[in-house]
Amino acid sequence: MTERVDPALVAGNQKQLAAYPAKHFGWQVQAGVATITLNRPERKNPLTFESYAELRDVFLQLKHATDVHAVVLVGAGGNFCSGGDVHEIIGPLVRLRAPELLMFTRMTGDLVKNMRGCPQPIVAAVDGVCAGAGAIMAMASDLRLGTPRSKTAFLFNRVGLAGCDMGACAMLPRIVGQGRASELLYTGRSLGGEEGERWGFFNRLVPPAELLAQAQVLAAQLCEGPTFANGITKTMLHQEWAMTIEQAIESEAQAQALCMLTEDFTRAYEAFVAKQKPTFVGR
Questions:
Q1: Is residue 193 assigned to a domain?
Q2: Are residues 83 and 198 in the same domain?
Q3: Residues 45 and 141 in one domain
Q4: Which domain holds residue 261?
Q5: The domain boundary residue, chosen from 190, 205, 224
């Protein structure tokens, strides 16, 4: 005999995040779009130990959010993010020993893992300075809008560190190519906005005054689509990096069959028959 599953148990991990009490960044949810604003404009929005940890945690919680279907990541005051705060992170790090340093680097890596692991597409709105960990967060986003004055720098070697930080050696070559990624990671030089668009780092450039609005419009368009299927697309884009073509084709066959069971697939067919635009519900 088949036992009935209690829906409350299945939904036990679901979260409503519109009222998330963010302490170290701005947080706003409107019509399914969460906007995260790095908000220390007087210092070009650097990260601290606390903001790293809270960003890591909120992206983990987004995995179970039912009221957020896309995310915009932006910086306040005309800059995206200048990386780890020199005085609040870099200074203390030089006094730590290896075990504590590894705890820190694993925490920063968990931020990228959680950005890639949440089902919501992330749109980075990059203006001005985008350096160090800021460049990594832009890289870890799904889509990137820039401006002509964007300056993106993976500048780890300029502070005596390797370029292999937070997944950069794995992800950046897949975005801009091996040779271009090598140049950025070996030299730490800035990638300008127009060059970044030519290289494929930015999906497109927009005027600075329109950046946030256009990023939110793009995120809203994603929310109007089949959000469950969008989450599957993000998962497969990430997982197929480590697959053979044969494995990828089989995995996509299974994923697509799952999407064919959704209401959204049926709604799309019925709307096509009725010559109407489908209204997707995310399930």
A1: yes
A2: yes
A3: yes
A4: 227-273
A5: 224
Angle at 145 between CA 69 and CA 58, to 5 degrees: 40
Q: Is residue 281 part of a domain?
A: no
């989450």: which residue's tokens? 231
Entry pTM? 0.91
Q: What is the pLDDT along the chain (283 residues), one digit of tens a residue?
A: 445 555 544 555 678 998 899 999 999 999 999 999 999 999 999 999 999 999 999 999 999 999 999 999 999 999 999 998 888 887 888 888 888 989 988 999 999 999 999 999 999 999 999 999 999 999 999 999 999 999 999 998 888 888 888 999 999 999 999 999 999 999 999 999 999 999 999 999 999 999 999 999 999 999 999 999 999 999 999 889 888 888 888 888 888 888 888 888 888 888 888 988 888 988 8
Q: Is 233 left (phi over 0), alpha (psi -120 to 50) or beta?
A: alpha
